[in-house]
Amino acid sequence: MRIGVVGAGGVMQRVHLPSLRKLGGVEVVAMAELNRALGQRVATAFGIPRVYGSAEELVAQEALDGVVVIADKPWHAAACMPALERGLPVFTEKPLAATIEDGRRMVETARRTGARLMVGYMKRYDPAYLEAARLLREGALGEVRFARIHDFGGVFVAGAEGVGTLALHPPDGTPRPRPAQPAPATPEETRRRMFDNWIEVWIHDVYVMRGLFGDVREIIWSRAGSPKLALARCGSGTEVLLEMGGPQIGGAPWDESVEAFGTQGRFTLRFKPPFLLHAPSELVVESPRSIDRPRLGFAEAFTEEMRHFCRMIAEGGQPETDGAMGLEDMEICSRLVDAALGA
Questions:
Q1: Are 199 and 330 a contacting pair, CB within 8 Å?
Q2: In CATH, which of 3.20.20.140, 3.30.360.10, 1.10.287.3610, 1.10.150.130 is domain 124-171+194-300+329-341?
Q3: What is the rounded distance in angstroms from the CA atom of residue 211 to the CA atom of residue 258?
Q4: Where are the beta strands (DSSP E) in the chain?
Q5: Which pLDDT tens digit goes with each residue over 268-299?
Q6: CATH number of 2-120+305-311: 3.40.710.10, 3.10.180.10, 3.40.50.300, 3.40.50.720?
Q7: Are 208 and 269 in contact (CB under 8 A)?
Q8: Which of 17, 16, 23 is CA-nearest to residue 1?
Q9: What does pTM read for this prediction?
């Protein structure tokens, strides 16, 4: 299977290229990167034969079975569209796009050309998440009336930075200029920034909420402060409290969890730092009779999502986390912002 990749930054270096290298029968044949010098260094380190300056060149010059896009979100649409227009399967890191308009254009193009578009929600492939979803699906907790999703972030690399990776800056070591002091934000700019925060960081938690408790029926309440708090009612009937991005001390440990409270028990799902490889997330299931820590085995979520993408290409079928789902998650983030602003 011949895969082309777009982007040579830290996430590509740390997790996606190593994940692709673990899969049998998969060859990364070419890379596209706007910074050609950085792209060449990463390609050389990972044994990728050819480097192009754009996604357009990549898909025009190479015979590919699929494309993996790991770029800053403002570039997602531009990086994905050349492959989508040709009907190629595309994997893009979350969020689907930087704007809902771009996301709609990507989804519509995929539908028109028959391309399969997958969004990178790696938690969907985490063994602890999958077991929690199974418990809910089978009613092991009884009726789940309330849940709490807490994400204050922290050190997401958790010591993994520099392990098997390259420098994340251009090779000449030029320091980045300090940004100018921003002018007071207009209401439109305030909304844009709030939406940008939700889709950049907490869209993972929106996806987890929907994956565990069903589609969002109603945003009951939302606020704009820090931490951002919201209460949503999901299709299962569960009301879910979201606690996102509160005050953090520098270098705090990763702090992201889900608690589900049912009439017959509860569980706590504590996610590991995203880039701490070879470490499992933790699931604790409690009932009036026992406290259980299920033995789940180990599978690296980033590798498993890439395995799913490549298996989909080889065997057919649709992605577990497709473009339409990614677009719906963005729309929910927009609803959360609107509710916080009283719109």
A1: yes
A2: 3.30.360.10
A3: 12
A4: 2-6, 27-32, 50-52, 66-69, 90-93, 117-120, 144-153, 216-222, 228-234, 239-244, 255-262, 266-270, 282-286, 291-292
A5: 999 999 888 888 899 999 999 999 999 898 89
A6: 3.40.50.720
A7: no
A8: 23
A9: 0.91
Percent composition of the chain: helix, strand, coil (DSSP 3-state, to 5): 40, 20, 40
State pLDDT tens for residues 181-225: 667 789 899 999 999 999 999 999 999 999 999 999 999 999 998
Cα 304 to the center of its chain, rounded Å: 13
Nearest to 121 by CA among 334, 332, 321, 324: 321
Dump pLDDT digits (tens) for 88-120: 999 999 999 999 999 999 999 999 999 999 999
Domain with CATH 3.30.360.10 in the chain: 124-171+194-300+329-341
